[in-house]
Amino acid sequence: MSDETTLVGVDGCPGGWLCVVQRGTVLSAMVVDSIADALLRFEPTLLMVDIPIGLMDSGSRECDLLARQMLKPKRHASVFNTPVRAVLVAETYAAANALHREVDNGRGMSAQSFAIMPKINEVDQLLRDLPVVTTKQLQLWEQFRTSAPVTLRAASR
């Protein structure tokens, strides 16, 4: 890794987004208010986001299905279903689950997905506002609770 390379891993937390930054061999960590703040503050070469990216209008994301296959037989249940985009407007779990069932052929929404929905919505909105981010800086980091992270490039719109 060159000295100019800046890697930033982010994960949602109650205060915003926890960022772990690596510049060369120096590691630092801090919390920022928004995912956009992480892009602006650190200008990363690579931003790795531990949140579902690329929402579907209905059905499951292929990467979720592949991750479950890869993690069988012991850890496949740790990959929960990503909500469909239509439920991002719901204010309660009951409303989100009902809307998900309506839009997605009877398939409900997990409580885990609802709990991180504000963070999913924030990333989704950033990609809608700044679509150039998808091809230049933003990549998805799915760790799958293993010792080696798997990095996938986010789909361009």
State the main characteristics.
157 residues, alpha/beta, six-stranded mixed sheet, disordered C terminus
Write the layout of secondary structure elements.
Blueprint: E1 6-13, E2 16-23, E3 26-32, H1 35-42, E4 46-49, H2 62-71, H3 93-103, H4 111-115, H5 117-129, H6 133-136, E5 138-142, E6 150-153
Parallel strand pairs: 1-4, 4-5
Antiparallel strand pairs: 1-2, 2-3, 5-6
Q: What proportion of the residues form beta strands (DSSP E)?
A: 15-25%
What is the CA–CA distance across the termini? 29 Å
Report the total helices.
6
Which word captures the global form?
Answer: globular
Describe this structure in words.
This protein has 157 residues and is of the alpha/beta class. 32% of the residues lie in helices and 23% in strands. A six-stranded mixed beta sheet has the order 3-2-1-4-5-6. Strand 1 and strand 2 form a beta hairpin. The longest helix is centred in the C-terminal third of the chain and has 13 residues, at 117-129. The radius of gyration is 16 Å and the shape is globular. The model is unreliable at 134-157 (pLDDT under 50).
